[in-house]
Amino acid sequence: MLDTQTDDQFNLGKVFVTVAEAIPDREFIVSSQRRLTYGQALDRSRRLASYLASQGLGSVTEREGLAGHESGQDHVALALYNGSEYLEGMIGSYLARCAPFNVNYRYVGHELAYLMNDAAPAAIIFHSSLAPVLAEVLDDLINRPTILLQVADDSGEPLLPGAVDYETALASADPAGPPIEASPDDLYVLYTGGTTGMPKGVLWRNHDIFMAAMGGRKIGSWELVRSYEALELGARNGMGLKVLLLPPLMHGAAQWASFIMICEGATLVFPNNPRHLDPADVWKTVADEGINTFTVVGDATVRPLLDELDRADHDTSSLFAIGNGGAPLTSAVRSLLAEKLPNVLISDSVGSSETGAQMSATSAGGEKVGTFKPGPGALVANEDLTALLDDGHDGLGWLAQGGWVPLGYLGDAEKSAKTFPVIDGVRYSIPGDRARMTAEGIVELLGRESVTINSGGEKIFAEEVEAAIAGFPGVADVVVAGRTSERWGQEVVAVVQLSAGTIEDAAGIIDHASGYIARYKLPKQVVFVEKVQRSPSGKADYRWAREVAESASQA
């Protein structure tokens, strides 16, 4: 029976207030721009909340009576790189009863226009370097935002017409915060990455996402935080961890990790260059700040870090754990990681925008990947989503999550009903991951259905083929996609990035993969590219990979 009973219902803004008031002098954020204690960050967040409230923003319609796909709050777009302003933007919005949401800073004009029209923000907080692309779309939006807060950076871009300098706004605002009580029913909005389709805004209650992924449970032990009093005690007694944030905060995994660490009273450290992965800078920051742990997103993040350890000596003695999520670490890379950092534990976690944290696995490297011990509420549903499968069932199913799950997708009742079905009277989140449950109660995660390749009637999971190829010497990165085939319906194509100085050897790659996967799963073609395109967090861009695969067939 899933335990969901807590003494208190949590609001994310109040979560931060509770921690910050308990440990105001502890260092919270370290970046090249500033160092802030918890107390200083709370002051800045409260000022932002006051400013938003003074402009008339907040909750418009209470949650009760709204459908799951509907929002009753003003939305705040966060078009920001990593830094204190991102977390202030989240916390300040929650304290003003606004609903912040993530904006992919890589978006070009038409992508940004789609997102802004879908989310209809009343305010945008953005870095100056993103002002030009924002200016392209502002006047053509269906509902133009009334508030523009511009965060200065080294770009030299002037204020957009109608924009207010972020620091000026904070300095002019009431440090006490607005005289309102934030609610556990207030929204946490997270837009999906859009690497397999158009981005969708996932709507969570604050309490539900806190319990599912943002510190309300201890990942692995799954122990619940049941009250604000317990939260305060946990922060006071925290280990004083120093955590390096590598993935962009515009992705859910980084937001979740940040709040998990906030609940532990940890110090969050940003690399000197937060806009792209600089391996030398990462290891220098680890040494200079005494970093204890950081999060990676699969092979694409880890390989460059390991290459840097080969190039130069770095002090990694303070590091004792690395968390991985969002993309798998293949056996080959996991083994290299264990070789280079033998005393570092590798913790893998599984979750999605629609489920929160679901499963975990911890190792010291080298173990079988793709198998996880499910957390509470993580189950496997049958093919037609009418029942849950028993442990050891031979059939392929859908990874499901019960308990704290989202309300729905913003503005999309039909997709909400499909992704969050009711089975035996219980509402589940089933976003599309294929899985099996072994007789031992272990989940074998196979991959997302949307990137599954149907070839000659067989289902081929892209991630399985990627793992088979990744261990070939000289393969720096690989993404697998399906393309149209007259004979097979679809055929497998591997898009491969090679390490510097490596000679192209498509036959060798396919022969290597044949030792790990069945013949029908092998690529019909290997396409070599200068660089595999991924999201800033490291997730594969499968839409791009399909375009490359289709183009190669026409060459």
Show the helix and strand layout.
Elements: H1 12-22, E1 27-30, E2 35-37, H2 38-54, E3 75-79, H3 84-95, E4 99-102, H4 109-119, E5 123-127, H5 131-138, E6 147-151, E7 164-165, H6 166-172, E8 187-191, E9 201-205, H7 206-213, H8 228-236, E10 242-244, H9 252-263, E11 267-269, H10 279-289, E12 293-296, H11 299-311, E13 321-324, H12 331-340, E14 345-352, E15 356-363, E16 371-374, E17 378-381, E18 397-401, E19 408-409, H13 413-419, E20 422-423, E21 426-427, E22 433-437, E23 443-448, E24 452-455, E25 458-461, H14 462-470, E26 475-485, E27 489-498, H15 506-513, E28 525-529, H16 542-554
Parallel strand pairs: 1-11, 3-4, 3-5, 5-6, 6-7, 10-11, 10-12, 12-13, 13-14, 27-28
Antiparallel strand pairs: 1-2, 8-9, 9-19, 14-15, 15-16, 16-23, 17-18, 18-22, 20-21, 22-23, 24-25, 26-27
Helix pairs in contact: 1-2, 1-3, 1-8, 2-3, 2-6, 4-5, 10-11, 11-12
Task: Report what the structure shows.
This protein is α/β, with parallel strands linked by helices. Among the domains are: 38-223, Rossmann fold, CATH 3.40.50.980; 377-450, Luciferase, domain 3; 456-554, 2-Layer Sandwich (GMP Synthetase, Chain A, domain 3). The radius of gyration is 23 Å and the shape is globular.
